[in-house]
Amino acid sequence: MTSSERAGTGFRFSDPVLAELVQGGLDEVEELLRAVVRSEFHPVMETSLHLVEAGGKRIRPLFTILSAQFGSTWDRVNVVKAAAVVELTHLATLYHDDVMDEATMRRGAESANAKWDNSIAILTGDYLFAHASALVADLGTGAARIIAETFSELVTGQMRETMGPREGEDPVAHYLTTIAEKTGSLIATAARFGAMFSDVTPEQVEALRAYGEVIGAAFQISDDVIDIASPSEESGKTPGTDLREGVKTLPMLYALEEEPGSRLATLLGGPVEDDAEVLEALELLRVSNGLARARKTLDEYADRARELLHVLPRGTARDALESVSEYVVTRTR
């Protein structure tokens, strides 16, 4: 049986029936996303649809729909709503992130803050959060509490990243906590929601939640490695973006531990704006033990994710989740 892979997500589906079921659910999520942002006030609808229609991999809805497939029955209507809730929340954070990062592009299109202005981008993000809250109310108080707690984690993670580690705090531990909150928390909720609206056991719900958190953080570490190790013609991204922005990612933090006072440490002291220095820093990072340690940490996260799946029944849905654990590692090689 041939395997169907969703480009850029790591999900491989060996069962065409499962692949069709997931795609059908995603199509319903797309319809719902467009429906809930409709407004009589055309400008707010235009700005809200800006990122909805820009596409994206819809990784979080994928986790929600797939996590609902481990029981014998699932509530399709509520799973689709839950998937839309997590995607609306994700999209809202992107509008806010672009303002904080002074971004000019998002998903191949002009970012909302560049196309309009910061105020419009912030208000649009708030509008999407409002609709996510309204939609989750249909799912009950338990789901509403979970998304509120997740939102709190997202904000905490962003503040943690913005403020940086406190004096005496381990920078690596600070970073790993930050990515668990900023990236892992919403993917964890996406997987948890799907499981909640099926007939799986509480133990399996928790396993899927934990898997989402670990694999979400693994995706970020994987991106960290790619930003340094992969040529642009392979990754489709310009290497050294984090260096230029002064963001200290995991390979850099490990390198700073390993080589204090070195030329590399000097370059990593702040944003690297000169093209020649960016290339120099990339060359030093690529041969540093910091990059090797980051790859090792990524392997450990992927292994942890796979271990968490052992309480789930074997089958094509579990195979699809395991394929993501493999993908976060192989995409960096």
Automatic annotation (TrEMBL):
Superkingdom in the source lineage: Bacteria
Keyword set, alphabetical order: Magnesium, Metal-binding, Transferase
Pfam families reported for this sequence: polyprenyl_synt
The enzyme's E.C. designation: 2.5.1.30
Family (UniProt): Belongs to the FPP/GGPP synthase family.
Necessary cofactors: Mg(2+)
Enzyme class: transferase
Protein source organism: Saccharothrix longispora
Listed SUPFAM superfamilies: Terpenoid synthases
GO molecular function: heptaprenyl diphosphate synthase activity
Protein name: Heptaprenyl diphosphate synthase
